[in-house]
Specification:
The protein is mainly α. The protein contains four helices and no strands. The protein has one domain: Orthogonal Bundle (Histone, subunit A), CATH 1.10.20. Helix content is 60%, strand content 0%.
Length: 84
Amino acid sequence: MKALSRDNIQGITKPAIRRLARRGGVTRISGLIYEETRGVLKIFLENVIRDAVTYTEHARRKTVTSMDVVYALKRQGRTLYGFG
């Protein structure tokens, strides 16, 4: 599995994190939150992607499908509806 570089995680911009926080009802955000959020998101994505790739490899495919991701999320207790 290809490792995420530090540059890629910086692609999650401050405004993007701020928008997510606003959607969650947060009005003011400490400056330290941005790096912390990137760290938490990186760990979450690594876990989901690892599980999705495991499903893909088990099915002897080379392409990760949306259902692989849905099953990976379900395995982690985060059921996602609307993708099959």
